[in-house]
Amino acid sequence: MSIENISGKCPLIAILRGIKTEEAEQYVSHLIELGYYFIEVPLNSPNALETIRLLQEKFGDRCCIGAGTVTDVELLKQVLATGVKLIVTPNVDLEVIKLANASNCLIFVGVMTPTEAFLAINSGATKIKIFPAELVGPTGFKAILSVLPKEVSCFPVGGIKADKEQMQRYISLGAKGFGLGNALYSAGISLEDFISNATKFKQVWDEIEQ
Q1: How far is 89 from 73, CA to CA, in rounded Å?
Q2: Cα 29 to Cα 17: distance, rounded to the nearest angstrom
Q3: Which is catalytic among the residues 20, 22, 25, 40?
Q4: Nearest alpha-carbon partner for 42 in 197, 194, 162, 158
Q5: How far apart are CA 32 and CA 140, in angstroms?
Q6: Which of 3, 5, 54, 160 ranks highest by number of CB atoms within 10 Å?
Q7: Does the keyword Lyase apply (predicted)?
């Protein structure tokens, strides 16, 4: 995966928090079949690095596998050793941003305020994760985007549902994509329910894109 070659990819980041290594391959294969490209395994999942390494080896040439909840440089170094190029943080750590960029990674930096956003941007971030979006809400999201540079891409994460009205509103305010959490995957969800959730999100996105 080259981070220069992500334009045109479905900008729905599938967040698989809590997924087990033994189920990850099956679940991710269905995401790829449905057209998902960005797939994140948060580091607070069981055996997360092992799962990430497995998925990268199996699917790294077909999609963008990455790590979430990368909160500091030491964790980032462990992630980089797996070969993935997608990094997602819940926080602003300037050294994480700099090392991720130096390692040619695509990094989404978690922020909640304009101050955090500008700290991230001034350290080299170009993709911002507005988190938790259910607290910021569309009104707060609009206010934050109004002061950010236009070239910065913002993704609401937290509380996003397969709801066309909700997603369309964020898109109309300037969102470039979404991180999909518990409404897509939660630990222990059946494969059948997971596929149903993933299909609904993709259908809503396709309708918005028409």
Answers
A1: 11
A2: 16
A3: 40
A4: 158
A5: 33
A6: 160
A7: yes
Tokens of 131: 């988190």
Q: Are 148 and 175 in contact (CB under 8 A)?
A: no
Question: Across-strand partners of 128?
Answer: 109, 154
User: pLDDT confidence of 5, banded at 50, 70, 90?
Assistant: low
Catalytic residue among 85, 129, 161, 202, which?
129
- Residue 129 falls in the annotated catalytic set: yes
Query: What is the separation, in whole angstroms, between the first and last Cα of the chain?
Result: 27
State the Cα–Cα distance between residues 141 and 66, nearest whole angstrom: 25
Check if the beta carbon of residue 42 is closer than 8 Å to that of residue 64. no
Q: Which amino acid is at 148?
A: L
Q: What is the DSSP string of the chain?
A: --TTS-TTS--EEEE-TT--HHHHHHHHHHHHHHT--EEEEETTSTTHHHHHHHHHHHHTTTSEEEEE---SHHHHHHHHTTT--EEE-SS--HHHHHHHHHTT-EEEEEESSHHHHHHHHHTT--EEEE-SHHHHHHHHHHHHHHHS-TT-EEEEBSS--S-HHHHHHHHHHT---EEE-TTT--TT--HHHHHHHHHHHHHHHHHHH-
Instruction: For 147-187, write each residue's pLDDT tens digit.
Output: 999 999 999 999 999 999 999 999 999 999 999 999 999 99
